[in-house]
């Protein structure tokens, strides 16, 4: 069993993974937490004005030109529960 897929993040826990000071960069979309640390576009925990460590469902569905298709290639690190 992969324990990483069982991790549940709330807002304050997710906020710790902001890609700053050596932390990994995670984002939540529709209840799933993705690791964007290795994505060049997320360098430093920022991507087009968005910050890692946040729930970004409305952003990816409403503002992102690529939508959710980019998520399929990202590692899943857990689930998000507000």
Automatic annotation (TrEMBL):
Database matches in Pfam families: Cyt-b5
Transmembrane segment boundaries: none
InterPro entries, alphabetized: Cyt_B5-like_heme/steroid-bd, Cyt_B5-like_heme/steroid_sf
Residue span, Cytochrome b5 heme-binding domain: 9-81
Top-level taxon in the UniProt lineage: Bacteria
SMART domains the UniProt entry points to: Cyt-b5
Protein name from the UniProt record: Cytochrome b5 heme-binding domain-containing protein
Lineage of the organism: Bacteria, Bacillati, Bacillota, Bacilli, Lactobacillales
């Amino acid at each position: 069993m992969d324990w990483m897929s069982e991790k549940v993040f709330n807002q304050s826990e997710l906020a710790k993974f902001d890609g700053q000071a050596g932390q990994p960069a995670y984002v939540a979309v529709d209840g799933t937490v993705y690791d964007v640390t290795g994505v060049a576009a997320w360098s430093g925990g920022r991507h087009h004005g968005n910050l890692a460590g946040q729930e970004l469902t409305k952003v990816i569905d409403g503002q992102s030109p690529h939508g959710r298709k980019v998520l399929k290639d990202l590692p899943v690190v857990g689930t998000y529960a507000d």
